[in-house]
Structure formats: structure tokens, C-alpha cells
Amino acid sequence: MSMSFRATSAVVRRVNVASRLSRPQSMPPCRLSTAASRQRRVAIVPTAIYAAARLSTAASPAAKGAASPAAKEASSSATKQESVPVAKSLLAMTAAVATVSAGAALVESAASDSCPPFDPRGQRFDQSTFAGRFSKMFLACDPRLLFYSDDEVRRSGKMVQDHQSLLANPPAGTTKEEMNRALWEAMRISSAALHPDTGDTIPHPFRMSGYVPFNGPVCVAMVASTSTPALLFWSWANQSQNALVNYFNRNASSEMTNETLIKSYAAAVGSALTVAFGLATLIQKKYSPSQAKAMMRWVAFPSAVVASSLNCYIVRSPEIDSGVPLVDSKGNDVLPGSTSNEAAKRGVHSTTASRAILQAPVYFLPPVLLGTVPILKNYLARHPAMTVPITTYVLLVIFGFGLPGTVAIFPQMSEIAAEDAEEEYRLLRDESGRPYEKFWYNKGL
């Protein structure tokens, strides 16, 4: 056997211990010894929240001429009210990430007793249903996956490769059901960090599991921005990160040149800044300063919808020309060396649509909740300094649950009817000699 029973037993014990815990852990127990050295990856992102408020305050118009003592006192009071409680914002972000992690742990634990037999080409959850796709994506977006080292990721991948021998000869004291669950968990760990097409390691900020702790605070900064410079800066940061997420999670079977990537990025960021600047300028011209400041929080929603959609489409559009391979139900390439442009077009369009839908829960729902729910509205009216911490928690939690929900709308391994594919695919026959009725393709994320 290519993998020692000791390493396999360690993974099995880790799964068993996790299932007995009365509450989800913020990170896998096995990583506690090295977690402190890795917290810097996640700890740097709350700076965005504080910097957004600083940019907004610095960009506010200053009063011309000498100000009266009363005006100075009012200005000082307003400045105190607008100051950002950094410690509380950090705590809110940590609590939000922990909430999302706890939700993922509960989903994994609830499914532990109904694990199907392990199949590396199969799925733990029924991908024909939205609930199954949501469960899969929610576990893939689990922030705790960021704390696994490269060695652990590679060992988990090795477990998946050796699954047949492990199932035939499980470690002593391990039941077949426990071995199946350990293998599903090993595949979750490895697939969260390794690209499915190339096997390359995806950088932490651009993994699906890194979306909430890394991209979430940037989204908070966009919502908290009350000036044009702040909104433009965080729109650029947001779309730059989105472009990199699109690139690292693209369908890697379609090669893109550096020139294409640079043009796509420039067009995507340019569209984001154009939309954000245009809407911000329109609001500031038509409304008073106080009204404009209140409305700026809504600019992030339409600008993010247009920009994120264009960003995703421009970065992924070269796939339409190069096409993607089609596979059968077992994952085998049905026509090696050939690709389908129709399947690639459908994949790019569905991914672009999901990115547009994602903006609604992230940029639209939090301002609605904070402005209409009586408890939240009254509390923030009495404690305006808590606006950023509460916005941080609400937005990140909604982001954590909304991201897998929108991605789950369209299956990652999508299908296309044989009659809708190119003519060269319609004539193909399967191993039994019957014509194929449908094919599958990786649409990317």
C-alpha cells in the first residue's frame, strides 16, 4: 500500500473527533499547533474596513473660512461618531467567519450518517438538486479549509488516489462507513486547494474557501464608503480580486495568453470604475451632501452587478473561442483533442449570471436589513459608532451563505444534450455502441 496506515488513521481519527464535538471548531483541531503562524493570512483583511472609513472622512468637503465654536464642536462630535471601532470591527469579522465555519461544520456533521460509498468521480451530495449543490459548495467555501498545510492537502490527495486499497483494507478499528467519510473529507480538503484540471495549488486569497475572510471585508469597505475616492478605490480592489478568482478557478483546459489576460483585466477594472464613478457623481450633483452620503451605500450594488458581470464575462470569454472538452458520465473525454464551443458559451454565460445574482445578497440585503429592521435601526440610531461592526457581521454572514447559494444555481459539471453539441459529437457512440444522449463539461466557478 502506497500510504501508511498511520497517516490514514490520523485522518480517520480527526473526522471521528470532529463528529463528537458538541460545537463546531473555528479551525480543524489538528491545525491548532500551527494556526497562530497562519492567522496573518486572515488578520490583515479587516484593515480594509478601517481604511474605507478613513478615506471617506478624508474626502468629505471641508468648510470654507473660519468656523464658529459651535460649528467646530458639532464637527468634532460628528467626527467622533464616524470613528471606526477597530477592535469591535475585528471581533465582528472574526464572529462572522466563525458563524460561517460553524454552519459548514453542521452541514458536514448532519451528512455524516448518510455518506454514500466513496467514488472519486462521484458526488457526496445529490447534484441534481439545489440542496445537494448548496451543501457541496457550502463545504467548499468553509474558511477552516484555509488552515490545512500543503503537506496535509497532498496527503489528502494521496488518500483519494489510494482509495481502493484503503476501502479494501481499512486501518484496524475503522469501519467501512468511517473510511468512506474520511475519504470524502480528504477529497474536500484536497479539492479546496488544488485546481481540478491542473492539480496546481490555488493561492489562499483566491480559493473559494478564502472568499469570506479575504473578499468579504473589501465588500464591507465598499458598502461603508461614503465618498467617491473611497468607493473607486475599493471598487478597484474588489474587481481586481474577482479577476484573480476568475483566473485561478477558470476552466484550465482552455489556455489564455498573457496579452488576453491583461486586456481582460483592464477592461473589467475600467468598467467597474466607470460605473462606480458615474453613479457617485450623479448622486452628488442631484442631492444635498447629507442625502448623497446616505445614498452612497447603495451605489455599491448596481456598480457591483454590472462590473462583476463584465469582469467575469471578459476574463472567461476566451473560453468560448477555444471551447471546452466534453466527457461522459464517468468523466472520460469522449473526443480527445476536440472541444465544444457551445458548451463553453453556456458555461461562461451561466457563471456570469451567477456572479450578477450574487451581488444582491451582498450589497443590497445588508443595507435593507440595517435600515428597515426596527431592532437594528433603533440600535444603530442610538449607537452610530457600531454601524461598521454590525455591517461587517451581517454582510459577511450573508456573503458566506449567499455565495454557495448563488453558485449552486448552476451545477459545476453541467450537461449538454448531444443534439445541442457540435456535429462531430452527435455521431459518437458509447462503449455499448449506442449514441450518446448527453455529455458533461466543467463550467468553472
Compact overview of the structure:
The chain is an all-alpha fold. The chain has helices at 5-20, 32-43, 47-58, 69-82, 86-110, 130-140, 150-161, 163-168, 176-193, 211-224, 228-248, 258-286, 289-316, 318-322, 341-372, 374-382, 387-407, 423-426, and strands at residues 413-417, 438-442. The chain is built from 18 helices and 2 strands.
Please outline the helices and strands.
Blueprint: H1 5-20, H2 32-43, H3 47-58, H4 69-82, H5 86-110, H6 130-140, H7 150-161, H8 163-168, H9 176-193, H10 211-224, H11 228-248, H12 258-286, H13 289-316, H14 318-322, H15 341-372, H16 374-382, H17 387-407, E1 413-417, H18 423-426, E2 438-442
Antiparallel strand pairs: 1-2
Helix pairs in contact: 1-9, 3-10, 3-11, 5-17, 6-17, 7-9, 10-11, 10-17, 11-12, 11-13, 12-13, 13-15, 15-16, 15-17
Task: Describe the model.
With 445 residues, the chain is an all-alpha fold. It contains 18 helices and 2 strands. It has a two-stranded antiparallel sheet. The longest helix is centred in the last third of the chain and has 32 residues, at 341-372. The chain starts with a helix and ends with a strand. 38% of the residues are buried.
Counting DSSP E segments of at least 2 residues, the number of strands comes to: 2
> Structural class given helices, strands, pairing?
mainly alpha
In percent, how much strand structure appears in the residues?
A: under 5%
Oligomer: single chain
- Strand arrangement within the widest β-sheet reads 1-2
Distance from N terminus to C terminus (CA atoms, Å) equals 35 Å
Largest sheet report: 2 strands, antiparallel
Counting DSSP H or I runs of 4 or more residues, the number of helices is 18
The unreliable regions are: 1-7, 17-67, 70-81
Shape: globular
Mean pLDDT value: 78
